[in-house]
Amino acid sequence: MKDFPSCFGENGVQVADSSSSSNSGKTAQNLVACVYQCRIRGRNCLITVTWTKSLMGQSLTVGVDDSFSNQSLCKVEIKPWLFTKRKGSKSLEAYSCKIDVFWDLSSAKFGSGPEALGGFYVGVVVDKEMVLLLGDMRKEAFKKTNASPSSSLGGAVFVAKKEHVFGKRAFATKAELCADGKIHDVVIECDTSVTDPCLVVRVDGKTLLQVKRLKWKFRGNDTIVVNRMAVEVLWDVHSWLFGMPSAGNAVFMFRTCQEKSLSFSQDVMSTTNSKSQSFGFSLILYAWKNE
C-alpha cells in the first residue's frame, strides 16, 4: 500500500513514511510528525518536527525541505542517547544562510505518546527572526535566542500532522481539524474479526462516518462536517482485510481545503488542487493493529 500524497505549494509534496505495509506491527515506529509552512528569506519552505519514542528513549528531528522541489535542505537529529542533554542548539545551512535550531527539553512533560506536551520549546531562527517556535516556554525561547518575532505575514502555518496510532479495534488521537483552534477527539473503529466488518469515524463522540460492506469499499473517500467545515476523509484498509492485520497498517487522511478534487490513480488515492495556497490542514494516521 502506498502513501497518501499531500500538497503544499505549487507542486505535490509526498508525506513520506519510513514504515510501509510490508513492515510488521512490532517494528512500527511510535512517532508524531508535524509539518509547518514557513518563509526563509522570501522563500516558502516546510519545516518538519518529528517526535519518536522507542525502547532506547525519546528522539527529536527538525528538518527543512523546499516547498517546490520537495528536496531536503538540512536536518538536525537529537538522538535518544543524547536526549539526556536536553538543552542545546545547532546551526544548519540552507538558501545560503545560517539556520539555528534551539531546544530546551529539560522540563518537558510527556504523555504516553512521543510528543512533548508542555514545559519545553523548540525554535528555528534565521537572520535573528524566530521563523518557528513550538512549546509553551516562549519567553525563555526569545531570551535564549535573542530573536525577534517573524516579520512574515501570519508566521508559520501548521499544515499537516502525521501520526502512528495503535489499537485492536479503536484508534484515537487529538487534532486541530479546523481553524477555530479547538482540539478535537478523533476515533476510528473497525473490527476486522467479524464476517462483515464496518468502519466508523467519530469526532468528539459523534458518529460522522460509517462505511458498511467494507470488503468492497476498502479504499475510498467521503466528506464529513466538523464545526460547519467540510473535512475530506480518505481511507485504505486493504492490509487489514486481505493480509495479516499485524503485518500491515491502514492509512487515513482527514483534510480540509476550499476547492478540491479527489481522484484515484491505480492504488493510490490522491488529492489535487489548482490553486497553490487553497489547501487546509491534513491529518494522516497510520493505524497499526495490536493482535
SSE order and pairing:
Elements: E1 5-7, E2 12-14, E3 30-40, E4 43-54, E5 57-66, E6 72-78, E7 87-94, E8 97-104, E9 109-110, E10 116-118, E11 121-126, E12 129-135, H1 138-145, E13 148-149, E14 157-167, E15 170-175, E16 184-190, E17 199-203, E18 206-211, E19 219-226, E20 229-236, H2 238-242, E21 249-257, E22 261-265, E23 268-272, E24 279-289
The geometry reads as globular
Mean pLDDT rating: 80
Physical arrangement of strands within the biggest beta sheet: 6-5-4-3-14-24-21-20-19
**Radius of gyration, whole Å:** 19 Å
Secondary-structure content class:
mainly beta
The proportion of residues in beta strands is over 45%
Tally of helical runs: 2
The rounded distance between the terminal residues' Cα atoms is: 20 Å
Instruction: Sketch the major β-sheet.
Output: 9 strands, mixed
Beta strands, count: 24
Show unreliable segments.
1-26, 259-277
Following the backbone from N to C, one meets helices and strands in this order, namely EEEEEEEEEEEEHEEEEEEEEHEEEE
Helix % is: under 10%
Please tell me about this protein's structure.
With 291 residues, the chain is mainly beta. It contains 2 helices and 24 strands. A 9-stranded mixed sheet has the order 6-5-4-3-14-24-21-20-19. Strands 7-8-11-12-13 form a 5-stranded mixed sheet, covered by helices on one side. The protein has a 4-stranded antiparallel sheet with strand order 15-16-17-18, with no helix packed on it. The chain starts with a strand and ends with a strand.
Notable features of this structure?
single chain; 291 residues; mainly beta; nine-stranded mixed β-sheet; five-stranded mixed β-sheet; 24 strands; globular; disordered N terminus
